[in-house]
Each structure stands twice: as structure tokens, then as C-alpha cells.
Specification:
heterodimer; A: about 110 residues; mainly beta; 5-stranded antiparallel β-sheet; B: about 120 residues; 7-stranded mixed β-sheet; 4-stranded antiparallel β-sheet; 11 strands
Chain lengths: ~110, ~120
């Protein structure tokens, strides 16, 4: 089993739709959680960190459920510019980042 | 934030040759990371490079195949040796934000796109 797993995708949604991405991780000792965004032929960039209490940044909401070892990302009112691959990333303190396989999103006009 | 540059941005190489990729950071960092991203795949960590010590390689990666140099706190190189078509990939250099807490952000270079014929 991979350490970080994500919805296989791709997700094709119309502009304005709400879309949710799911991620699970296998290491119960994982401490830090992130969503990164990777545009086509570009490097990954941090979208948002995911905190235990959940956090929101504009149209983006991230949730963490440590008991279920589950992370989610919700995008509301999706824009064409949201089209990208979304990478779930997990880190154990003092150790390296582990990247999920990514879920590709295409927002259609 | 950190600004990272990589050279070359892309290359096409013949089987059996070697390529050295350079990574330059605009600030001093303790650890630098080298990742590989194969077509349609996510990122896989190759090794962590600390200045003044041997790089630490992840399972499945060995120094003979991917020698790394880290001569100072702003620069590193990764060599892909004796290349085969299976080495065709994007190679990414990365650093973290350097704060000693668990929510460090990782910054990535633009990547080097390697094609081996």
C-alpha cells in the first residue's frame, strides 16, 4: 500500500462547481499535512497547509481527520485557473515529505 | 521564500552517457533535496544533500547511479550516470523554508526535463 493515496481522477467540472479531493495516509505518526498545486509542465507550489482544526483560504477549505488518517480539499466556485494537479503531501517531524500521486482537475467553461 | 534555478532546463541524451544537473538557491540552506517525477507520476525523493557530508539516498537510489555534490550552502549538483531510457524524467531540486518546525514549506526549482534515447 502506498503511504499517501488520492482520488485517481481526472475530475472534469464546469466553472462555478464545487469539487472535493480526498487523500488518505498510512503512517499514523505523520505530523504535517499539505496540499500542493502543480500546473502542467511546472514545479509544485504550496497551496495550503492543513491543520487539525481545519482551515480555509478564500474558496479553498482543507480538513484533517487524524483518527481516520484522511485529508480533504474543497474548492468552491471553481475557476478555469484552478485547472491543475493537486498533490496531497504528508511529513513526519524531522523526516522528508511524501507526495501522493496527485489528482488532476480540469475546470471547463 | 526561496528562489531556485536549475540548469539545464532540458536535455536529450544518448544511452550510456551521464548528465549533471545544477541547482542554485538565492539563500543559504542546510538541506537540499533532489526529486524525480516520471511522466504522469508524482514526485519521488532521490536523496537529501547536506553541505559537508555525504548525501542520504532513499530506497531504490544509489550513489553510483546518482552522485550528488553539495560544495556550499547555496549550490548542489545531481549527476544521472550511465543513462538509459528509463531515466527519462523531470528532475527537481528543492529546499525547505528553513524554519525549525513541522510546517516548513518546500520550494522547488523549475525542473530539468531529461529525455534519454
Amino acid at each position: 500500500r502506498k503511504e499517501v493515496e488520492q482520488d485517481p481522477g481526472p475530475f472534469n467540472v464546469p466553472e462555478g462547481a464545487t469539487v472535493a479531493f480526498n487523500c488518505t495516509y498510512s503512517n499514523s505518526a505523520s505530523q504535517s499535512f499539505f496540499w500542493y498545486r502543480q500546473d502542467c509542465r511546472k514545479e509544485p507550489k504550496l497551496l495550503m497547509s492543513v491543520y487539525s482544526s481545519g482551515n480555509e483560504d478564500g474558496r479553498f477549505t482543507a480538513q484533517l481527520n487524524r483518527a481516520s488518517q484522511y485529508i480533504s480539499l474543497l474548492i468552491r466556485d471553481s475557476k478555469l485557473s484552478d485547472s491543475a494537479t493537486y498533490l496531497c503531501v504528508v511529513k513526519n517531524y524531522g523526516q522528508n515529505f511524501v507526495f501522493g500521486p496527485g489528482t488532476r482537475l480540469s475546470v471547463l467553461p | 521564500s526561496a528562489v531556485i534555478s536549475q540548469k539545464p532546463s532540458r536535455d536529450i541524451c544518448q544511452r550510456g552517457t551521464s548528465l549533471t544537473i545544477q541547482c542554485q538557491v538565492d539563500s543559504q540552506v542546510t538541506m537540499m533535496f533532489w526529486y524525480r517525477q516520471q511522466p504522469g507520476q508524482s514526485l519521488t525523493l532521490i536523496a537529501t544533500a547536506n553541505q559537508g557530508s555525504e548525501a542520504t539516498y532513499e530506497s531504490g537510489f544509489v550513489i553510483d547511479k546518482f552522485p550528488i555534490s553539495r560544495p556550499n550552502l547555496t549550490f548542489s549538483t545531481l549527476t544521472v550516470s550511465n543513462m538509459s531510457p528509463e531515466d527519462s524524467s523531470i528532475y527537481l531540486c528543492s529546499v525547505d523554508s528553513g524554519n525549525d518546525h513541522s510546517y516548513n514549506e518546500q520550494f522547488f526549482g523549475p525542473g530539468t526535463r531529461l529525455t534519454v534515447l
